Batch of 4 targets.
Target 1
Amino acid sequence: MVDLYAVALVSTAIAIAAILSVRFSISSAIFEVAAGIVLGNFLGVTIDGWLDFLGTFGGLMLTFLAGAEIETRLMKKNLKVSLVVGTMSFLAPLIGEFFFFMIFTNWNITTIMIASLALTTTSVAVVYAVLTEYDLLKLQLGGLIISITFVNDILTLIGVNLLSPSLNYFTILFIGLIVSMALILPRLLKKVIASYGRRSVEIELRIILALILLMALVADAGKLHAVFGVFLFGFLFANSIQKYDEIRSKIRTVTFAILSPAFFIKAGLLIDLQIVINSWTLIIGALAAKLISKIIGTYPLTRKWIPEGAAFSTLMLSTGLTVGTITATLGFELGFLTKDQFTLVVLGVIMSAIVPTLIAKRFMPRKL
């Protein structure tokens, strides 16, 4: 039975977060994470099945939309920039976190590598949400940041799979589906819209949502992880869906009205303030190691190639949430992280979604 107490509090928190976001011109994701912290630590809300589903679905939808917003023309034009900055955005914090954990913990090498990989990521979900909220997504700067994020997170997922290679027949199936989708998606979407578009039952929207969850399922079963599969699917979908603003608008409405807030509230619910109190120095240290190494590694490159928004871009690339949390969860499930280590790493990941986003507001590009 659904806990109506939790439902009422979460829905109220979503509405309040939106109002505060507009009132203070700060990304609603920050208020939603903060709401999750309050709900979990003071009001007794837990991650029940319904919220777990909405939050997971929200992360997938944000990731899909981020991939779908990438203009292949722009990515090809800026391929060198995306590859160079994205690779440095991955390597710099990997090295920084590795040495931090080597010096300040007695963890084994595999644990340190998993923790470091979790903290290398740039959050596609956070970046997409912030760029959309500040109306920067359609600008070249926004597309370039998304492209760099894509490279960063792809390298992280490759690193995770190298640490624990477990590919199977579903991996082959996923690759086959991706290749097939690349060939048939444009004609499939066109045919569906021509035959069923503009109906009250929203058939085209239902089909797209079903395909997203199918690709997530197959990618996860293939040990490539759902987020990776959905992001890649969105990327393949980009050229097709960008021709239909009405459909894209509907997907964004569904996502930002309920699914995205549920995702960020769920992230806030993961934060146990007691653990924060007990391990705050190590958490702050891990967060600082990520931010400092990201800035040292990427700011010179963004200043060279994205001069109109170098500081803002660097801070956006310093965020982390979805892939970082997934990486830590995988490490925990494989026995590489203990429960306390997992909690510490996830807290560092979640804090990296909040701190750079708050600071980035001060460096919002004004003249583009």
Target 2
Amino acid sequence: MPGRAAAAQKILTQINRNGATVVTILASPTIQADAPPAIDAARRARRKPIMASTHHRAVAVWLLTCCALIFAMVVLGGVTRLTHSGLSIVEWQPLVGTVPPLNDQDWQALFEKYRQTPEYRQVNKGMSVDEFKGIFWLEYFHRLLGRLIGVVFFVPLLYFWLRRRLDRPLGVQLGGIFLLGALQGGLGWYMVASGLIDEPRVSQFRLTAHLSLAFLIYAAILWVALDLLWPRDRAGDATGPLRRMAWAITAVVAAMVITGGFVAGIRAGKAYNTFPLMNGHLVPPEIFMLDPWYSNFFYNMATVQFDHRLFAWVLAVLVTLFWLKIMRSNAGARVRMLAHVLLAALVVQVTLGISTLLLAVPVALGAAHQGGALVVLTVAIALNHALRRHESIP
């Protein structure tokens, strides 16, 4: 009776001309099925390596570089908005506009176009050419940085694609992100155009859309980069309460960005400059003074600022509870470290927000607060990514 080893082998016997026996042993698929669990696990690990390959790391470094440029773009955009420089360039010239004014004649031509805008007539009437240059250069560098981001994203994308460093799913993801970037450029001009017609300020809806899309593009690029650096181990996905809570935190951060866009759009930060109460009230009495009621969420300074504060309180509670749950779990070292960073980033961001409010939105603090929102989102996304890996399941 053949044993287990004999059953796991296929023996072919041939008789040669001299009567000698030649035995050829061919491995059967049964051997794979009967391998010890430890060996089988090792084979699976070799088939699906956890760490990124060399060319994936190169792609990830490029994507993280794009994230850094977008971060700078968000901060510079905040400075441009707070200094009222965004309406200084009244034309959208993606290619020709790359060249700045080179002589006095060029400056006079640009200044004459600016003098036709509502901002000059209603806000900056009597401004000199030298004063105009101060607001022009901020908007110019903001647009120039946008063009630079487009080049830094597209040229390596084309290179990696031609060198076949991108598989089909990754290529589709990056192609979609590139289209979002092109849409962002058009949306930026659509936003600026709203302030060149009647009122010397851009639409709060277009401003919020422009800001939100920048955060979305940043988040998408960051997620793809993290996927390349730490490839997904599908057998170990975490689907428990910690991961659901981490996504809830990310959703609240996104809501805060949206409400922050409306705060900036209607300049609600210039009102109710007290904390924790709003001019002595927990809920200001004029919160629903506009009709219809839903317009208060977009046009009423009291409502818009109250919403932004409310999401800040919700986020503070959620992040604190999340941190406590992580500390009491057996989560991996990377998750615990990111939980510490998230809590610290939120403390800094809330401090920046309160300081910005109490001081009626100075430029430096306002821009830092806008950048701080992106830092909090970055850590939240990194936590979500880390929680889905098998070594981080609580």
Target 3
Amino acid sequence: MMFPLVTDLSADGVPVTVSCRVLKLCRQQYYRWLDQPISDRELNQAYVANAVHDAHIDDPEFGYRFLADEARAAGHVVSDRTVWARCAENGWWSSFGKKQPYRGRRGRGGTPAHDDLVRRRFNAAGPNQVWVADITEHRTAEGKVYLCAIKDLWSNRIVGWAIDERMKARLVVTAIETAVARRGDVAGCVFHTDRGSQFRARKVHRCLARHGLVGSMGQVGTAADNAAMESFFALVQKNVFNTRHWTTRHELRIATVVWIERTYHHRRRQARLGRLTPNQYETIMTPTATQAA
């Protein structure tokens, strides 16, 4: 944009007509720019860039198409191609995408992982001492469904869960908020997960801090470090997901919730709990746990 140069030359005494002729600019466009230095189009592009940047910070694994969806969900009318252009200009690429060329000193890295506080000791002496969480998925005719579940290792009860069509950080946040609403004061409870990008998102870290939860993460690519949730998801796959072909996400969502709340909690007896169900175990053991505390 050469119009600011015309203004500077005019301040030095060079007529606008002469400057525009030399710089091959339209004098009428210069005066329109002078009345409104920032066009509506440029302002709109700035708002879109802010929305895309916010979505990229919350979920660094998103590609430009998902970021475009987030921008449209925020109320902006924008195409995928426009969002790609903004991403290309600013280097906002998916953390799962191609490696970027080295350009000297790098910027601030992603949110660091938590230390492993559980170390494969999947037990707890009382309620709300250790929670484990993970995400699984299953396909329907409409597309994938993602389930995030949180288990209390004391009673094996699923204290929080969330189901959505997108695997985003807010899926984890919703599950945590559900668990906190059910369990009350959970300050000091260890929240153990794998090192997936959803669990490392800033939204999740802020949610943990807000409720006083202590983050813990297993090693990369080691399923045994979160075996308690892997075993639960194996039950979900066998008893719900793989029982039939699911036409809609809503059907699978309802079936999953019913199985967790009715069958798993109330009817499925577990050897580790003395052949009691999670609900029976909590009902019987809660007074004991309270007295011990």
Target 4
Amino acid sequence: MSVEALIEQHGPSRELRDQARGLQDAAVALRRSLHQHPEIGNDLPVTRDQVLEALDGLPLDVTLHKTTSGIAALLTGDKPGPTVLLRGDMDALAMPEDTGLDFASKNANMMHACGHDTHTSMLVQAAHLLSDRKGDIPGRVLFMFQPGEEGHHGARHMIDEGLLDLPKNVDGSDSPLTGAFALHITSTLPVGMAGIRGGAIMASSDQLEIRVKGAGGHASAPHLTSDPIPVACEIVQALQSMVTRRIDAFDPAIVTVARINAGTTYNVIPETASIEGTIRAMSAKTRSKVHELISQVAMGIAAAHGLSAEVEIHLGYPVTVNDPTFAGFSTEVATSILGDKKVVQLPNPVMAAEDFSYVLERLPGSIMFLGGTPSGQNPATAAPNHSNRVMFDEDAMEVGVSLYAAMALRHLGVRLS
């Protein structure tokens, strides 16, 4: 469908973009304040206070979650209808910042290196924009301000605490959650562009620990010991062969050993060796198969050498799966706003993981990547997300606010203007 036809279908969005542009200064100010005061995990008291202050005065029913610093803010339109969820994550990473920005992190070994400060700021301003249009909204918008995305299962904790168990409307009518949408900024796409795909878009992520146990002794007499080190090395090599020979190349997985630990000094054979790493998969089926094969490989190799191996797999995030219909709808709306060739269909999933996957297991929806390459830099060589030098062009936030608001409005049947 042509851009002209999409604009005709969804509306021209001129007023929407003008509103988003008018909120840009506020978005930048909040983003920079959040960036200077990053917090890690599920307990983000300073961040939560800043978000609440920025939402103050809006016609929102705010619920503060007790198990985390999560915020659920519900906007009820003046007309009946369903509810759509918009997510913005708030937490930072445990790492130093070396960007040289005037508003760089003031907290040691904490940095918003994945752009969650921009997500939070964009969602706050989307709440302002949609609140101004409350009279046109047939239904409700649930703004999900989520902590703990970086490995702390914040979305799952919010769901467990009842995020999706919404009350009925004041008049007793139902307003069920019928869709969910999230954005994730990236320095690998130019500003003004967005990337999406239907189906699996991001991988599952699990933590692997293998403990090989033998019998230690003097390094000069290895025949009198059961040395776990060469066995651990053999296991590492075998895991790589396992992936290439036992896993379907069209339903891929990655097993990366990132740490091996054994021994205390040069002339002692230790009793144990430990292996740690990560497991990524693009389907629940392959994820489960990889877990099973890892145990077979590790314990089998250890047993062949007269040693034993203990395998622990700590479950992380499930595969992030965009509902194909919703992803197509998201593509249409984004294209009508951004223009021709500005919304790209990603040819492959990303092997990073996202705990928005927990939401998408419960609701049809999608997550879209938002272009944020710093001005004057090449997207192919710009410092990537999770780098100590990553930066994002703040002009991307005007685009993000527009997309958040447009997705909510169009999902609820409101034409853009």
